[in-house]
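Figure 6 in text form: structure in, sequence out.
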């Protein structure tokens, strides 16, 4: 199996954005009175992992390093996989035509 350049590019673009979002949200105070949307940005940027985890009853707490790392690393791997599929599909189609 070859290393996917497209996958590395997608993962390389995603990883700093996701880490930045988690770090920035951790530094913000919880505000909002009766409703607190703390870590909603972290949830949204890791939606492909965080949403199924919520649906399965696993409450990811982005204040914990382990939970945040699982979500970010899982989504980074997902982005790499998407890039690998795109690159492999392109190469297969290019060789076919």
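Output sequence:
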């Amino acid at each position: 199996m070859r290393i996917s350049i497209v996958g590395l590019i997608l993962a390389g673009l995603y990883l700093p954005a996701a880490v930045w979002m988690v770090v920035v949200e951790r530094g913000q105070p919880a505000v909002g009175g009766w409703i607190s949307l703390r870590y909603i940005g972290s949830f949204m940027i890791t939606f492909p992992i965080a949403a199924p985890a919520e649906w399965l009853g696993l409450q990811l707490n982005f204040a914990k390093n382990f939970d945040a790392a699982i979500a970010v690393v899982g989504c980074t791997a997902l982005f790499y996989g998407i890039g690998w599929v795109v690159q492999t599909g392109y190469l297969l189609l290019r060789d076919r035509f």
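Caption detail: The longest helix spans residues 65-96.
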